[in-house]
Design goal:
Distance between the termini: 64 Å
Strand order of the largest sheet: 1-2-3-6-7-8-9-10
CATH superfamily: Glycosidases
Mean pLDDT: 92
Order of helices and strands: HEHEHEEEHHEHEHHEHEHHEHH
Radius of gyration: 25 Å
Helix content: 40-55%
CATH class: Alpha Beta
CATH architecture: Alpha-Beta Barrel
Low-confidence stretches: 17-29
Length: about 375
């Protein structure tokens, strides 16, 4: 008969094996959610590489709420790109004369950077360049501090602003040919990119109505498409020196008359020909808010990476998402990856959007409901 010690050895072996199996099963259950999340993100990356959210930077008193939104809403929905419109709401050291009264400090910015890093979100910070140097009857920080940069110094925003108006004033522009403007502009661009630790910068460049204006001694009579393209290339080349890429809105590169898109979503002043003059590595944010216009195809055909940008209509956003998926599925390998994905744009103030998002029900046009439905659809992929 076998000795008792042999029985004990067999029992100990079986007990150890059972423990190991139990440990492995438990760990499998523990690790599966993490593994599943990783696989899901990888799949999303192949289907929808850019899953973006664009919003204005928070004011200091709203910072904690925005950080919570990043952690609790953007991260779990696998948003991977945050376009943050900063403009002059940062405490610039290079040009303190440009700083807004509600500007973020460096320490406050770093809290946003950490939250995005923890949630694998790339930041693309934005300062409006060329156009959008005024709003309604208020001149912006750049032209207020440096009025000599104004493309149209003789046009004064009226106290009671209305559109349309005799001066065709929507927003002022800086003169792209002024010899001193880029020293100032590039100082703040570099500083904001450094503090946000970003590899991409969004220059805006949308809705530029004033360019090559007869009032400007430098730009008057010059080809508006060449002026616009020259400014894009100058900004792009500056960013490239530090390994950064340029993002812009795409409306000025579309022909308003040919497409019927109108003066907001496309150009009526002949800047559209710049589409063939700018570098191909400029990332295009192609925005359409009232119809799912399919102009992303044009940018992709020009060899540019493009994301479709939506706003406050859930129905339009879902249609645009279907379009991007179809473009990627039915394109050649050479074309497919130019269709990069979807970006939701928010045009209310940061804290106003967060207040809207906290409400349970949203009917009709709603940024918050569009956010929920858009990213629910993307994550269902």
């Amino acid at each position: 008969m076998p000795s008792l010690s042999r029985y004990f050895k067999i029992f100990a072996f079986l007990l150890g094996a059972l423990t190991l199996v139990n440990y492995s099963v438990c760990n499998a259950y523990t690790l599966t959610p993490v593994a599943d999340t990783t696989r899901k993100v990888q799949r999303l990356g192949t289907v929808m590489p850019v899953r973006g959210f664009a919003i204005g930077a928070p004011r200091p008193k709203g910072l904690d709420d925005f950080i919570k939104f990043i952690n609790n809403e953007l991260g779990p929905r696998h948003v991977n790109t945050l376009i943050l419109r900063v403009d002059y709401a940062y405490q610039f050291k290079s040009h303190p004369e440009l700083v807004d009264s509600f500007a973020l400090s460096k320490n406050e910015v770093k809290k946003i950077v950490k939250a995005c890093r923890d949630n694998r979100i790339d930041i693309v910070c934005q300062i409006n360049l060329l156009g959008h140097q005024s709003w309604a009857n208020k001149v912006g920080k750049l032209l207020k501090a440096y009025p000599q940069f104004d493309e149209t110094p003789g046009i004064i925003p009226p106290a009671n602003y209305k559109w349309p108006n005799a001066d065709s004033l929507y927003c002022k522009s800086y003169c792209p040919l002024h010899p001193d403007v880029h020293k100032v502009v590039f100082d703040v661009v570099d500083e904001i990119c450094d503090v946000f630790e970003t590899k991409a910068f969004h220059a805006g460049m949308d809705e530029v109505f004033y360019i090559g204006h007869p009032q400007c001694p430098r730009c008057s009579g010059k080809d508006k498409a060449a002026l616009y393209a020259g400014e894009v290339k100058l900004i792009r080349d500056h960013l490239a020196q530090k390994g950064r890429s340029l993002w812009i809105w795409g409306d000025r590169l579309l022909d308003a008359r040919l497409t019927g898109l109108g003066i907001w979503e496309a150009s009526m002043n002949n800047t559209d020909r710049a589409i063939d003059l700018i570098p191909k590595d400029v990332f295009i944010c192609d925005w359409h808010y009232d119809r799912p216009d399919q102009t992303a195809v044009l940018f992709a055909l020009k060899g540019m990476d493009v994301a479709t940008c939506t706003w406050r209509s859930p129905q339009i956003a879902l249609q645009q998402t279907d379009d991007i998926l179809r473009f990627r599925k039915n394109s050649t390998p050479e074309m497919k990856d130019h269709f990069r994905g979807m970006i939701l744009t928010i045009w209310s103030r940061n804290d106003q959007f967060l207040d809207e998002f906290k409400q349970d029900k949203h009917e009709g046009l709603s940024q918050a409901e569009t956010f929920r439905q858009l990213f629910a659809k993307i994550n269902s992929l």
